[in-house]
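[Automated response] Your request has been received and processed.

Submitted sequence:
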Amino acid sequence: MPDAAYRLSFTTGGLLRVEGAAVAEMLLSAPDAATARAKAIASNVVQQRSAASTSRVTREVLQRLSTLPQPGLELLAHGAVDDGRHLMWFAACARYRFLRDFGQAVLRERPIVTPADFDTFWNLQSAWADALRDATVSTRIKLRQNTFRMIREAGYLDVDGQVRQAQLGSAVVAVIRAADQELFLSFPMDTARLRAVAQQRGR
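Generated structure:
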């Protein structure tokens, strides 16, 4: 697997659900992504304190949202908060192979997830991924912190590290199925729930 599969640029920002909903609204109303980006930056819909942060966060959100089909953008912009959390976790996993693999190998497989589990996963993956092996200690710490922040903001992890099963609504299921149904495996769902989701129809 090529090292490019592991982009390590998700060091800040968390799940970005609120920001994602705001930018999704821009994408739906603008004629193209470039126009939406310009408007989002000009109006600072991501609510950052500096121009540099506004540009950086807007770019990051747009990169994640590029993984969503049109119905996903509409659901993110106008749907329920919980739907938005699930969609932004999906978008993060679709954008970042590291999160996709971590969700499948660790989050879905364990009843409790701790920072030590992250480090074990990192060490195992670094056997083939130069991007992980060559990363600085500070980058690894930032990625660990932000990974756990995303998982908590998505609602999949409580304060004690207990994993909570993802409760995906039918509209979210339809979006994921249309975009990349293999990513269902990156959500914390046991086999029975995953089977039920596979049989579920989008509304």
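Summary generated for your ticket: Residues 102 and 192 are 21 Å apart (CA to CA). DSSP finds eleven helices and no strands in the chain.
If you did not submit this request, please reply to this message.
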